[in-house]
Amino acid sequence: MIKILACSIYATTIIAAFAFSSLTFANTQQVTSSTEGADTLKSAALLTIKKPLIPIATYPIDNKPLPRFSVDASWPSLPETWMLGQVSGLAIDKYDHIWILQRPNSLGKTDTGLATTPPTAVCCEPAPHVIRFTPDGRVATAWGGESNAPTIDGVNQWPVNVHGLFVDDNDTVWLAGNGKDDHVSVGFTFEGEFVKGIGRRGQTKGNMDLHTLGNPADMFMDSNHDELVIADGYINARIASFDVEKEKAAQVLGAYGEKPLGPTREGDFDQSQATQPQKQGIDPENPLFGNIVHCINQDSDGFIYVCDRRNNRLQIFKREKSGDIRFVKNFAVRPETGGLGTATDVAFSPDGKYLYVADMMNGRIWIYDRKSHEKLGSIGKNGRYPGQFIWLHSIDTDSEGNLYTTEVNTGRRVQKLVFKGVN
Predict the structure, then answer these.
(1) What is the C-alpha separation between 386 and 380, in angstroms, rounded?
(2) Helix axes 7-24, 36-47, angle to 10 degrees
């Protein structure tokens, strides 16, 4: 494999990028100070400067043509006092705005000294759970928490530990959680008003139940069938396609399209379990889903990709004209990997030619030909610098082919990888 990385240029550009980023980090429209007018003028002038792009480690296979990316280290711009926790969810809406879902509860007391009473530090405070960015990285909308969700039978429906995110074509923002009792997928308007919910917090009844969930990880809306298709995978181990109006699953499927008769997780999930081996071990040919069914996404041809992270594989399904979902292919992703497992999310190039697969353990994004599934190469590596990843969690693409990534555990960030063409 050939590694594309100009080390001296890379180091110099990192220094320049961090200097630039520190100057532009504050979103002066949302920060008040005695020099607000001057700061706003300075910020506007800086935005006219060409943004520094940092090369990302790139590993083509046999010099095959490969999409190329560089990192925009100045993206996004947050209010000066905001701090992100673990960024678990990511979605691009039809307007090319970028949404993230992050965990304020993952921050510690030393991170959020400004938010204590009295303040113990000059910075910082937790950013809201849900943030919508414009393509150039400005905050457009931010909200989240129990005040946005209804209370049903005495139980608030906002997840205690948010996980997956999807924005549908009707401008509904769907999110899910994998904390204690988080057996819901809930939908909101762009402004954070509750629209609809699937499942109920505190209620789960196993893989074959048609009304409840078990710590859903991810979802997408199939607009053609008005069904929310869910990777129901931290307590349960299945995919479930829910009729949104009836709040009832039309189909529930296990691995290979069979009935989901495998075991459910005993007790609550916590992040320490993410690195613990599952009882059946890692098996890319396992007849059952593993104990983290982590992602679900659909391409433009109707193929549905499911991340079976603990078995280091994707399972590919297809929605038929009848509405039935059938199994198509088992697809191993770096099957010899241990630890956290590999397949954690998938995305597609806007022209439909390339499939991107996020690999949590190896800190890589694997690039495949979408139709043949031929592996073409990979980008990224484990690390904390721009274009590197710690617990790479979610990926998505915009209409220009740019890739966005998020990280959990101690990664706690979102990155923009700028598409530079194919060569």
Answers:
(1) 9
(2) 150
Report yes or no: 127 and 133 within 8 Å, Cβ to Cβ: no
- Taking a C-beta distance cutoff of 8 angstroms, is the pair 281, 289 a contact? no
pTM exceeds 0.70: yes
For residues 119 and 152, the answer to whether their CB atoms sit within 8 Å is no
Which phi and psi angles does 38 have, rounded to 5°? -65, -40
| Residue 305 and residue 316 in contact, taking contact as beta carbons nearer than 8 Å | yes
CB 186 within 8 A of CB 165: no
Q: Residue 184 and residue 145: Cα distance in Å, rounded?
A: 14
User: Which residues face 152 on adjacent strands?
Assistant: 155
Q: Strands 86-92 and 98-103: what pairing?
A: antiparallel
**How high is the pLDDT of residue 34?**
36
List the single range of 33-37, 87-91, 315-319 with lowest mean pLDDT: 33-37
> Over the stretch 362-402, which tens digit does the pLDDT of each residue have?
999 999 999 999 999 999 999 999 999 999 999 999 999 99
Please state, as a whole number, how many other Cβ atoms lie within 10 Å of the Cβ of residue 359: 24
**Burial, 42: exposed, middle or buried (Cβ in 10 Å; 0-12, 13-18, 19+)?**
middle
Give the Cα separation of 174 and 301 in Å (integer): 22
Strand partners, 136: none
Would you say 228 and 185 are in contact if contact means Cβ atoms under 8 Å apart? Answer: yes
How far is Cα 72 from Cα 12, in angstroms, rounded to an integer? 15
| Distance separating alpha carbons of residues 115 and 356, to the nearest angstrom | 38
Give me the percent of the chain exceeding a pLDDT of 70. 88
**What is the rounded CA–CA span in Å between residue 423 and residue 419?**
12
Quote the longest CA-to-CA distance of the chain: 64
Amino acid 163 reads H
- Structure token pair of residue 250: 């039309």
Q: What is the pLDDT of residue 274?
A: 81
**Burial code of 341-350, b = ≥16 C-beta within 10 A, e = fewer?**
bbbbbbbbbe
Quick: pLDDT tens for 8-51. 434 444 444 444 343 333 333 333 333 344 444 444 444 556 67
